[in-house]
Recover the amino acids of this structure.
């Protein structure tokens, strides 16, 4: 049977809640994610004897991609685009040898599918121009791609009402990271509760930490929202009246 609804509670993994001074976030959805790997093939040559204009420097091309990705974010032309080159490998290399090979990954994220598509297209055109200008070849490999996943408005409204009744401040936010909820959203009404993290919201490290108060606030919203959903008939979640939360934790 199809679940009536799904609600997930997770650390935010970012600084938005802390910057807003609240412990709880109501998640509107998960932004689009694009992962690609670029392999740049140039030509090794002596660093001292090869004139600048005669070089086919794979490392230089890779560096241009890193800088251009940031420029695209700063331009504002692609909305809330976030771009990261998380891995850049020039091989073993030598101090006095022009790099002939570079492999780098590009992580793009955007809460707007149309702007994501434009960013991918414009970056690809920029890299094509680099390849021609520097006499190198570039191969692209698609590693992953997901579209924007909006969460159910009814479940979001129910979470907001629950937080209000508990007297808890909150902000609405898109998730910058992928979560189980984005997959389950394909089969039933879904939403998420974020919990504030300390240290800039860092995660997947021993420094990941949320205070007991933040954890309690997030799980209070989760537990009471689940009680409301459980008391609903088989109608669309969030559309039925529900008892006020009893501050379950």
């Amino acid at each position: 049977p199809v679940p009536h609804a799904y609600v997930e509670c997770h650390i935010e993994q970012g600084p938005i809640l802390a910057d807003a001074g609240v412990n709880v976030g109501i998640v509107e959805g998960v932004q689009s994610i694009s992962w690609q790997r670029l392999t740049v093939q140039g030509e090794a040559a002596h660093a001292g004897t090869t004139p600048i204009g005669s070089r086919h420097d794979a490392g230089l091309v890779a560096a241009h991609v890193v800088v251009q990705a940031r420029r695209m974010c700063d331009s504002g032309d692609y909305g809330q685009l976030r771009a990261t080159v998380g891995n850049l490998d020039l091989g073993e290399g030598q101090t006095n040898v022009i790099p002939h090979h570079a492999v780098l990954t590009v992580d793009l994220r955007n809460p707007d599918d149309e702007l994501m598509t434009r960013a991918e297209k414009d970056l690809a055109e920029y890299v094509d121009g680099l390849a021609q200008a520097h006499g190198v070849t570039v191969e692209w490999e698609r590693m992953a791609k997901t579209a924007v996943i909006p969460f159910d408005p009814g479940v979001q409204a129910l979470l907001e009402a629950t937080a209000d009744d508990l007297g808890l401040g909150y902000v609405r936010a898109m998730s910058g990271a992928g979560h189980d909820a984005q997959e389950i959203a394909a089969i039933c009404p879904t939403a998420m509760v974020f919990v504030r993290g300390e240290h800039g919201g860092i995660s997947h490290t021993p420094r990941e930490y949320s205070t007991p108060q933040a954890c309690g606030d997030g799980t209070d919203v989760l537990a009471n929202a689940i009680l409301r959903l459980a008391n609903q008939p088989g109608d669309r979640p969030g559309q039925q009246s529900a008892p006020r939360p009893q501050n379950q934790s």
About this structure: Residues 113-134 form the longest helix (22 residues). The chain has a mean pLDDT of 93.
